[in-house]
Design goal:
The protein is of the alpha+beta class. The protein is built from 3 helices and 21 strands. Strands 3, 4, 6, 9, 11, 12, 13, 14, 15, 16, 17, 18 and 19 form a 13-stranded antiparallel beta sheet that branches. α2 packs antiparallel against α3. The radius of gyration is 40 Å and the shape is elongated. The two termini are 63 Å apart.
Length: 339
């Protein structure tokens, strides 16, 4: 009876072990089937010219709105839109009636004060009377000076007339009569990433290309670096001045600005390895780990180099990054690498 039991149990044990092995094999196969198949590229450092490029709009060096401080009749406007003017040039003649009245009053006060002053010197009038007359004279002189400045309007700068809102004979009611823009030199304003804060210096050159002038190249110079950074965009404003001696460049023109900051050795990554984070400007790659998983790594990109990007931070020389199946990958997922 015992022999029969032994020979019955042995086949059952063998069958159970076979089932267990089959189950383990299936688990291994399933695990391998779950891994995402990818191709990778190994990244390396190389010397990269540090060319930083920006876009900007040309601005005038200065803008002056020409207008009197009080309403009045415009007698004559001497310039038209597009005319070049020089500092001190007469642009507008306002009605001079009040100015003539003020001049007559001032002349009378001067004569009266002259006589009073002579009497004061010999003791003929008191110091209080002399002070009162002197105050009247000073007020009249200031009134005349103010009216004189607002009757003949002069250009405070060398520039070009860019706006004219009135004609001769109109009544000035508030809007500037003329606008003068200084365009020798001109300037532009760019917002530079904070990663370049220590690279940009006052006085350094920048290459300016202007599309409307057939991409003609000009040289500008950094004239001002704003001392604070924008906390939202992590950028800081930089002002560049262009001499524009021949006035060829005009405000409003679209430009491309390039700084050459020398050479630097940085990792270069294929552009097909870059993943853009939806809803932001952040860029990522999937980094291959030693255990055949991938990590979702944020990178800071520099220049685009044909089909590659310079990486300023986030990767090291010799790292391997996924270049296929990026939409199927997740942080920490297992992968199978193929050639």
């Amino acid at each position: 009876m015992k022999k029969i039991t032994f020979w019955v149990i042995i086949p059952i044990l063998i069958a159970a072990m076979s089932v267990a092995c089959t189950q383990r094999t299936r688990e291994i196969d399933t695990s391998q089937n779950d891994a995402v198949t990818i191709r990778v590229a190994e990244v390396h450092e190389q010397v990269v010219s540090q060319l930083s490029e920006y876009t900007a709009i040309i601005l005038p060096e200065a803008v002056n709105n020409i207008a009197p401080s009080v309403p009045g009749r415009i007698d004559r406007i001497y310039v038209e839109i597009g005319d070049f003017v020089t500092a001190g040039q007469k642009l507008v003649q306002m009605d001079a009636t009040q100015l003539r009245q003020s001049k007559t009053q001032l002349d009378n006060l001067k004569e009266n004060f002259k006589r009073l002053d002579e009497l004061y010197k010999v003791g003929g009038v008191s110091k209080a009377d002399w002070d009162a007359m002197k105050t009247q004279l000073d007020v009249a002189q200031n009134t005349y000076n103010n009216l004189s400045e607002n009757t003949q309007l002069l250009s405070p700068i060398n520039g070009v007339v860019t706006m004219r809102n009135y004609d001769s004979g109109d009544l000035f009611t508030g809007a500037p009569i003329l606008q003068i823009q200084q365009i020798r030199p001109v300037k532009l304003l760019i917002n530079v990433s904070e990663s370049r804060f220590n690279d940009i210096k006052v006085g350094m050159d920048a290459k300016i290309r202007i599309e409307v002038l057939n991409n003609e190249e000009f040289t500008g110079r950094v004239s001002l670096i704003h001392p604070t950074l924008d906390a939202r965009t992590h950028t800081f404003p930089v002002e560049i001045t262009i001499p524009n001696a021949n006035a060829k460049i005009r405000p409003g023109m679209y430009t491309r600005v390039t700084f050459n900051l020398g050479n630097r050795s940085n990792v270069v990554v294929p552009d097909n390895a870059i993943v853009k984070q939806p809803g932001s400007g952040d860029r990522y790659v999937y980094l291959l780990n030693d255990d055949n998983t991938v990590s979702y790594i944020k990178v800071e990109l520099g220049r685009r180099l044909d089909v590659n990007y310079e990486v300023l931070s986030g990767l090291n020389d010799g790292d391997k990054v996924a270049i296929t199946s990026l939409t199927r990958l997740k942080d920490g997922i297992s992968v199978r690498v193929v050639e």
